[in-house]
Amino acid sequence: MIKKFALLVTILLITLKSLAQKIDFVQSDSITFAIHKENVGKIAFMSNNVPIENIKQNDFLKEFEIKDKTDLNIRVFMGNSLTNYLHLISPQLSADELTNNGNYQFTFIVDNKIVYIENLNLGAGNTSSKNQKTTFRVPLISSNNEDSWGRFLWNRFFYNGGEDAFSTGTHLLKIEIRPYLKNNEVIVGNLIAEGQLKIIIPEIIFNEEQVKVQNIKPLKELQISNSKIDIQKIEELNRKIAAKTFKDITSIVVLKEGKILLEEYFNAANRATLHDTRSVGKSFASTLLGIAIKDNYIKSETQTLNEFYNLNNYQNYAVAKDSITLKDLLTMSSIFDGSDINSESAGNEENMYPTKNWIEFTLNLPIDKTKLAQKQWDYFTAGVVVLGDIIDKKVPNGLEKYAHQNLFKPLGITNYRWQFTPQKVVNTAGGVQLRSIDLAKFGQLYKNKGTWNGKQILTKQWVDKSLSHQMKIAEEEYYGYLFWNKTYNVNGKNYEVYYSSGNGGNKIFIFKDQPLVIVITSTAYNTVYGEKQADKIMEQYLIQAIVK
Description:
The chain is an alpha+beta fold.
């Protein structure tokens, strides 16, 4: 009797489980393909993007070698949609509440050790896919830089422990996916899919000559420093660059007390190379505005936009626009509805580039009423384009010639290249390319409080304002006049730096309390690792090697 009862209970539980799998809180896609039915709850790794109807079991990878120009995708096979899994966590919430506040949690495990856990951004994936999809594909590594949250997720894993875990040799990578819900607190559901893959990290062969500290060639404008450096530390750094641990680095230049202490080039770059440092060029816009104010072509940074443009002639006019100052644009704190951080912002820089008139684009923008209540920092490239246009209109012979005569020529900079806006004005948003040694001169100008060879190019007051805590960005991070500020902590000691920053990890660092200027150039554009590796290079190598 007891055995029969137990058998009936077992059958009932199996039946209820089967029914539960078929009953959806929201209607999800049916599991129709055999390959899906055979792999529910699994993550398959694939080298190609194969439509699900064409996938065969032998398309699934068992091992993968990480190298340049290769592709790695995951195909996730689930028993239900994300929204339905989220419903199990919090049955009282509506479908909209679940999709707006929930997503997947990814756990990356290397050699049986948890390396990285991420609750995927709530905006990753649209509502319909969260409600319906029972399988999905995303690239982790893409040879053509496919635009997908999966690729950026992989990069975050890689540069938050994955790179260190993947030493040369063979490793076992395991990925686990769970649903998570962020309401008053983060709640994580049960495992919904997992998969593993053997990862092979090949040894990169390079010439040991690439590791040696490079000889500094004489330069007319700058002397060579006799100060000591930790040669072993620099060679350790060079080895990591050669081995592609630090990727796409093209140069490192260090000035100490205004003299060349270190000048290293990588990946086919040399002293003559003009580097596209992207938004590093914004700092040059600040410099040129400061020079124009010194020369009395512009009164001060407190002037308002309505002194330069008839704002009534542009769309979305509001009285509040009349009060926007040049300083607001310098400190990224204007009330324009413009944010490069928010891809949905009307004034995002990606919306500006395709237009025929970048000035009209910017001045046509509405104001953001949420910014009226309290001054706040919000990165806004289009505002810097307007600054360039204003300087171009006010200085004699336009900004290009003015920059050459009043900035580049005094610094001995003769080899450079500008990009231009559709209005044929030099692009102050980040369109100037220079040699690394000349970028270092620019940083040294600020270290010298605006003087060069006894000539006052910038006023000390403008330098002080530019390299100051005008706006707080985050804890211990600030913004000045198109310059950033933060503090590195190395071996228990703080090193405060002001710096120019551009996409890909391009930097000009100006130390506050050390006689140092450091330039790092890179071509790691639009990658997660570009910024992170610049910080690692500073903290783990350069500061330790050169600060005595």
